[in-house]
Amino acid sequence: MTLPPYMTAVLRGVLVSILLAITTTMTTSAKEADPYLWLEQIQGDKALDWVRKQNAATQQKLGKHPLYASIYNDALDALTRKDKLPEITQRGNWIYYLSKSTKHPRGVLQRSPLADFKQGSPDWQTVLDVDALSAKEQQNWVLQEMVCYAPKNKRCLISLSPGGTDASELREFDLESMQFVKDGFQLPTAKMSASWVDADQIIVATDFGADSMTESGYPRTAKLWQRGTPLESAKPLFTTAADSVSVVVQYFKDTSNPIMLVTESLSYWSSNYYLHEDGKVIPLNIPDSAAIEGVINGQLVVSLKQDWTHAGQAYQLGTVLLVPPQSVRSGASDSKPGITVLMEPDDSTVIDMVVVMDKHIVVTTLENVQSQIFRFSRDGDLWQRHKIDLPASGTISFAAGDKTSGEFFVRYEGFVTPPTLMFVDDKLAVSTVLQQSATFNGDAMTVAQYFAKSADGTKVPYFVVMHKDTKLDGKNPTLMFSYGGFRVSLTPSYSGSYEALNGVYGKAWLERGGVFVLANIRGGGEYGPAWHAAALKENKVRSYEDFEAIAEDLIKRGITSAKHLGIEGRSNGGLLVGATMLRRPDLYGAVICGVPLLDMQRYHRLLAGASWMAEYGDPDTSDWEFMREYSPYQNLRAKAEYPPIFFFTSTLDDRVHPGHARKLAAKMMAYGYEVDYYENTEGGHKGSATSDQLAKRIALAYAHLWLQLK
């Protein structure tokens, strides 16, 4: 039946009224459900006014603490001292280092001839003064990455981030003239990846315009871009779905058969892999949880994160394999797999890191969270394993290396041992290159490893660092740090945590009578992929149970007591301390919650949050039933006895939305809880862009701890 025009108009008006009423009701309900939603407006005037007010109040309170100034000065000294061990990279016969100081807070990129550096007497030359560039362009640049075209390494792609965000601007740089290349490769600020194919072609994945980014905020499409042509004419190589995480295409210049490898990240922990040959995309039949570490002698170096059976052969999770691409190409015969086992884990040892060079593979392992390092070299058809002779305790990490010769640098450090840089030559002889001076008296400290029994009976390790004269009377101010997610391994370090703090905690905490604890809870990678998988999604609470078991064990041993126990976590660790603070407020006397996830009902809608659903779950599905049990923002209650908390975050964090910290802080303040809040205006997910900013945050955080725990 056809309605008269006037009736159609009337019905349309009624329908519009109903829809407006529904929308108004939904909006009102949303505001009632979350009255602090306005704090998610990152640069909103109202939100920034709130941030400025909280920053001023925190500085007024904690900045007046008797220890604030001395902690700040000690921190700044440790972070900027001249003999601080450089974090180096190697490009051919040159060593590169971003040097920061009080005069150059954003850093000067320098380089030294390799021969001089190996002798411990580097001859530094200025490559790029980031502070001068920032002043000239009136932009607070942070140098993120330098990708050079090997083997000559004359041209590089330099990534510059405004204020430390994950998004960066790309510029081509000439290492002979020490200038940016006029009319060279250049891209505006975006989350991106870029790599060289040859001197005139690069592979780039970036924001190409409408519908070119995934729901997680990363590039959907990778293209081959020819020098001198507009970006619009770049040749598409691969495009993934919008609900995937990202796509990256890499070009490996093998001596005989170059390989173009496509990695399509479906989730944080699963990827499809393809070969790109003659314009065609050929799927590779390897587990989607596996990681391809690189290419050597035409073979893929694959780390398994789950058990895998291929061509009738079973391979254990955690194993590193050499896989000929032809044996796993879609449609390949299973009769001749040709797969080689490079290294397998055992009952006490897990494989931590794999570095692929031109003719060698370097592998670091963890045995009860202590490091070892090996180099694998090919001898005919066999691979020979050689252990590098380095100290048995502490953390050993690959620092830099020459891909062609097999020589490399390693970094060694411990909780009370300053970082040392060592050189491993082609004959595997080890020599000390640089050793940093101590920033605190480590000889006065002792380090012990203990194990606590978690709720399900699992033994969970943790380290305790304290003065040798510490009395086990339950009165010691104690700081426990952990992370518990994303397969991140927390190992003994001079920084105490995974941040580059250069022993700051020694002066700020240990020498003043504090105890430091590093908790190796499930969700991390300390015991391999299974240790991580044990605390995924519906099992996330195991991380919190592990953490709480360690807190109880510390109290049982008399190392501390609840009123003297402070806890700290950053990012996923911020979620950890936020959740356990609400679960067991009786266990803690103070909390430091940095750049955290806290609203788990909305995390997947904020910035890069959608890329982490494989870790936490999807709150828009039945997953919310287990997520709601621990989500801090939803579980906060009035009239509880939560410990005083210090939040820190960054306005320019484009990974974890600052709204998480803002909203929980505001909600806690409204309930009358003791809250200190500090939001740096730049710094990205690191929370700071300069040493001065980092020293200020450290001083505020430790002033909070001493105020509450002493």
SSE blueprint and pairings:
Layout: H1 5-33, H2 45-62, H3 68-80, E1 88-91, E2 94-99, E3 108-113, H4 114-118, E4 125-129, H5 130-137, E5 141-148, E6 155-162, E7 168-174, E8 179-180, E9 186-190, E10 193-198, E11 201-205, E12 221-226, E13 235-239, E14 246-252, E15 259-267, E16 270-277, E17 280-283, E18 291-296, E19 299-303, E20 308-310, E21 313-315, E22 320-323, H6 325-328, E23 340-343, E24 349-356, E25 360-367, E26 370-379, E27 382-387, E28 395-401, E29 408-413, E30 420-424, E31 430-435, E32 445-453, E33 459-467, E34 478-481, H7 504-508, E35 515-519, H8 529-533, H9 541-556, E36 565-570, H10 572-583, E37 590-594, H11 613-616, H12 624-627, H13 632-635, E38 645-650, H14 659-670, E39 675-680, H15 691-709
Parallel strand pairs: 34-35, 34-36, 36-37, 37-38, 38-39
Antiparallel strand pairs: 1-2, 2-3, 3-4, 5-6, 6-7, 7-8, 7-9, 10-11, 11-12, 12-13, 14-15, 15-16, 16-17, 18-19, 19-22, 20-21, 22-23, 24-25, 25-26, 26-27, 28-29, 29-30, 30-31, 32-33, 33-35
Helix pairs in contact: 3-15, 9-10
